[in-house]
Amino acid sequence: MYRGIPLGRGTVPGFYQPAHSVKRVETTIVVDRVNLLQADATDLIRDAALNDRVELRVLGDVGAKIRIIGFTSPGVEVSVDCAIVISPRKQAVTYKQCGFNGLSV
Length: 105
Prior knowledge:
This protein is mainly beta and 105 residues long. The chain has a domain at 38-104. The chain has 1 helix and 5 strands, in the order αβββββ. It has one helix spanning 38-49; strands at 54-64, 67-68, 71-72, 76-87, 92-104. Strand 4 (76-87) and strand 5 form a beta hairpin. The longest helix has 12 residues, at 38-49. The protein is elongated. The model has no long low-confidence stretch (mean pLDDT 83). InterPro entries: LEA_2 (IPR004864), NDR1-like (IPR044839). It is a single-pass membrane protein. It comes from Anisodus acutangulus. Residues 2-82 form the Late embryogenesis abundant protein LEA-2 subgroup domain. It holds the Pfam family LEA_2.
């Protein structure tokens, strides 16, 4: 999202993650027919060109099952909320902070 406006959609295929491990997950965000008002488009261009920073927010729901000694739990869902800042000149992420909201079974 850019300033509260949804820009695209992405999905991550399911995977198994062993206990006490870290996994990097990548996805491609598909941006198709975004409806930006003129003011929002102007802000986006100004942020990118003049300020060399575009702040985005990535939201998503992650479904998971937990396996303990051969028993699999019912599905759980966690909402992920990440704030990232991109530098268009460097073509790099310059800031990121992620958190999660609630755990529902």
